[in-house]
Write a structure and sequence with these properties.
The protein is α/β, with parallel strands linked by helices and 256 residues long. The protein has 10 helices and 7 strands. Strand 2 and strand 3 form a beta hairpin. InterPro entries: HARBI1_dom, Transposase_HTH_dom.
């Protein structure tokens, strides 16, 4: 049986993705598909926003499982390719009036994995398997402006930031980044709170400043995780970064 459902998204999201798919089909010379660009866009948004499985989508749109897989992969790859690069995001932050950004990390839960990958993707900090993502947030409005590729969940946030060259690139751009205590010792232009119980008044004031400005960083990732596909990803862990970038492109809109 099938039943109608809803998506908590604006028509602009559907139009944006449908236009991308329409242009892509024209470029590759695709003459016929089982679904129109608009219907394919709706299928992909249902998967990303509501977390609908391939099986449910195949039944609802009356197409095969393999077709759903191809449609979702095609659309997410198109969207992810349009996500802002680290350099572009830093340029945006450099022009926000105070040359300041927020660096934060998050763990996207995944299914249990067998073999060596099971240990590699297990996060001791969060006590679950997942993929580490790093992100940059504009403190003015709390908008997420960049998301990294995924790394195994056992990767420390500081190691992940260094792997993606976030710290060195921000330093070259003369851009300050505020982060939490997990990035202690990063150096460069990264600003973190002081550790310890016996802090001076100046150190306590510094911590209050950093924590108050870092508040929007949490909201940035909350927006990303409003897309239920990231509640627990059941596809290949190496696709998590692509999914996150695709969602970021949709959140930023056509101007991205």
């Amino acid at each position: 049986m099938t039943y109608p459902g809803t998506l908590s998204l604006s028509r602009a999201h559907l139009t944006h993705l449908a236009d991308l798919l329409r242009g892509h089909r024209a470029r590759i010379g695709s003459r016929w598909r089982k679904l129109t660009p608009g219907r394919q866009a709706l299928l992909v948004l249902a998967h990303l926003r509501n977390g609908d499985t391939y099986t449910r989508l195949a039944a609802g749109f009356e197409i095969g499982l393999a077709t759903v897989y191809r449609y979702v992969r095609e659309a997410t790859d198109l969207l992810a390719a349009r996500a802002p690069s680290l350099t572009a995001a830093l340029w945006r932050l450099a022009g926000n009036g105070h040359r300041l950004g927020i660096l934060d990390g998050t763990l996207v839960p995944i299914d249990w994995l067998g073999g060596e990958a099971n240990r590699l993707y297990y996060s001791g900090k969060h006590h679950r398997h997942g993929v580490n993502l790093q992100g940059l947030v504009d403190p003015r409005r709390g908008d997420l402006v960049w998301i990294s590729d995924g790394l195994p969940g056992s990767t420390h946030d500081l190691t992940a930031a260094r792997t993606h060259a976030v710290i060195t690139t921000a330093q070259r751009a003369d851009l300050e980044l505020l982060a939490d205590k997990g990035y202690q010792g990063a150096g460069g232009t990264l600003v973190v709170p002081h550790k310890g119980r016996k802090l001076t008044k100046a150190q306590k004031a510094h911590n209050r400043m950093v924590n108050s400005v870092r508040g929007p960083g949490e909201r940035g990732f909350a927006t990303l995780k409003a897309w239920r596909i990231l509640t627990k990803v059941r596809c290949c862990p190496q696709r998590v970064g692509t999914l996150a970038k695709a969602i970021l492109t949709l959140e930023l809109g056509p101007e991205s």
